[in-house]
């Protein structure tokens, strides 16, 4: 199904309204939002703007994923082990 969809896109140029319908199953939310903005404007967005928006939101997604991963790892390691490592490295908070 995906191959047929990709080939259909490559065969003939589509306006933004047709792309919304066609891509709704294969696009992420951000890409779909950009296509909807194109449809509202009636013309394509600047390629540099599209790249910048995609880069910014990809960076935000990676930062959120990394912070969730760190939180999960912290929950897996007991507090006594972390305290022992801090004492060993001299990082224990001084009161």
Task: Write a structural description.
With 95 residues, the chain is mostly helical. The chain has two domains: 1-45, no CATH class; 46-95. It contains five helices and no strands. It has helices at residues 2-11, 16-23, 29-41, 47-76, 79-89. Helix 2 packs antiparallel against helix 3. It is rod-shaped, with a radius of gyration of 23 Å. The chain starts with a helix and ends in a 6-residue tail after the last helix.
Give structural attributes:
mainly alpha; 95 residues; rod-shaped; 2 domains
Helix vs. strand class: mainly alpha
Radius of gyration, in Å, reads 23 Å
Mean pLDDT: 76
Major sheet, described briefly? Answer: none
Number of domain modules:
2
Catalogue the unreliable spans. none
Count of DSSP-assigned helices: 5
The number of E-state strands comes to 0
Strand and helix map with partners:
Layout (H helix, E strand, L loop, with lengths): L1 H10 L4 H8 L5 H13 L5 H30 L2 H11 L6
Helix pairs in contact: 2-3
